[in-house]
Amino acid sequence: MDIENLDHYSQLILSLAALVTLTSFIMLAQGRLLRLVFVFALQGFMLVLATTIAAYSFDNPHLYISAAITMALKVLFIPWMLRRHILKLDMHRDVEALSNKTSVMLGGASLVVFSYYVLHPIMQNSSMILLNALSLSLAVILLGMLLMISHHQAIAHVVGFMSIENGLFFAATVSTNGMPMVVELGVAFDVLVAAVLFGIFFLHISSSIDSLDVDKMNRLNEVDQ
Amino acid sequence: MIPAYLLLLLPLLGIFYFALFGHQEDVGRQNIRFNAVTLFLSLWLAVNVFNSGTLLSAEEYFIVDSFNVYLIVLTAFVGFTTSIFSAPYMAHEKDIGKLTDKRLRLYYSMYQGFMFAMYLVLTTNNMGVMWVAMEAATLATVLLVSLYRTPESIEAAWKYFILCGVGIAQALFGTILLYYAATQFSDAENALMWSVLYENAKLLNPEILEIAFVFMLIGYGTKIGLVPLHNWLPDAHSEGPTPMSAVLSGLLLNDALYAVVRNKMLIDGATDSHIAGYLMMGFGLLSFLVAAFFLHRQKDIKRLFSYSSIEHMGLMTFAFGIGTPFATFAALLHMTVHSLTKSAIFVTVGHAAQISGTQSIEKIRGLIKTQPKVGWGLLIGTLAIAGFPPFGVFTSEFLVLLATMQSFPWLTPFLLLGIGIACAGLFRNVQPMVYGERPEGKQAVQANLWPVMIHLVIVLWLGLAIPNFLADWFTQATILISGSAPL
User: Fold this and answer.
1) Is the Cβ of A26 closer than 8 Å to some Cβ of chain B?
2) Which residue ranges does UniProt annotate as crossing the membrane (chain A) (predicted)?
3) Is residue A219 situated within a structural domain?
4) ipTM above 0.85?
């Protein structure tokens, strides 16, 4: 694995993959909601950079469009919307105490190892950069799920959900230079609708349980009361 | 292809139409008309496929073959009969003040949105668009689950939204891996086209595809309601409006299974192993058994029947997993009869809950005395879904058992055990609700039980004799899925 022998594109993409994963870890340890949303926007921005670099290197104009959509949705609109909700519901001073931060971080690290293990079989017929980038994007997806499990605030769940989408988008960009345009537009539309729906749900949840702590939503279960 | 385009266009228009005019007095009847026309279009499409085989649209965006046209007709039919049921049901909910004009507009608009997403899942030729449509179906139904805006329904909708959203994201990762495997031999724009993939399945890299299938099964499996990813399903079914439970159980679960089976066809073509089948059999059998046990401890009538849906979806996944032509034929038949029976049951369950004003099993009593039609409907529906002869569910479960005995004889006891436990679980709960003394002050409600009767008569008919054209139809679909005829 000789990094210096790779072309500039591969080196840049590998660095960005590492940075995207790093932002996922930062989000995992973050207790303040506003900062969480900021780091999420940063992750989106890395994605825009990666997509633009891919578009430039492969001279693939449709990737510029997906970069623009990502910029508008994941860097601007969704963080703006989440920020507005946090301020409106007066949650920007809340610190979510993560009681088991160490085990969560260790769990995150093992998820990265696990992703490499899962995608190892495809190594024979793909380049090193692809294996790394794909494994790291799978890691970002799994870290997003871990973020949702370890945090209690509905806003953190949405950030986790959206960072899962980021991982998927990164995988699509690096492995195949983006999905067909119609699919990308469809996914972007779904994300947009989901973001709007989440906004609606924040209002309903906060009016029904008087906070956004999803642990307090426990009316429906199979355990005898 | 014209009927297929119209089939997609009409519900799409319906979304906007009902968003604007969904509060009118006769909106229920308008919804019935919309769905009647789509039913007619689906039959037209089926006749076309029957006469000229697989249809592929000019730019290859849509494909209709004997496998999906059968599900399209089923979707249109259940969508139509459920709209007949939902008209008086929703009017009643509005009368007792549970719904406002605005929510009624939302309900009818999203009903059409859901139908549109379902038709798109079934007709599209692009595996990526299939994912997009599946996610769109989640988004359309999330609003319907929280329609009553009670804390419970909001909790159920949130759970459904998060769990299905995260789950189905795994399916997109699987699709990306599939796309990556396909770009090795095809140009980028066509690499996700089902028709291209299926023809070149031999060229796909088996290792990548096996990993991709695991992700697809987890992703779409969340939507099918396979254990241990089923948690959203009983909540969403029990808290949403009942017509929604009928279409969720009758249609959405089927279409998610359809997506898995399409992917399995690719994996089987690419690899010589039976790995996809074994995975489906394992998940299916687990769901089947776990759901059968859970039937015994339910207190809510709609949760009871949603666990029954998990059980039957598990059985179908298991049967598709066996993968022999005979098992595939049985699974297709089971899909049909389960959809019809389950949506009929949810119609009667909806009326039973309206009569008693509650969904608690302990408080629903003496239905036959209060409103005989509803009581008998529930009883006969339960008989049918539990697999009593001569109903169609008996036939298809029997065929699944036979297919299991042929291929994996040591698994038959598990199936028999599950069927027995499920039957006991259903009847210990349904018996007291149907018979027994009628509680004070319960009045019959305005009910339209035609959908129930039509569905149950068809299920009975399928149990006594499968008409020739339908047998041919299933046989063609079986040949498409598993490569040879069942008998």
Assistant:
1) no
2) 12-29, 36-57, 63-82, 103-123, 129-147, 154-175, 187-209
3) no
4) yes
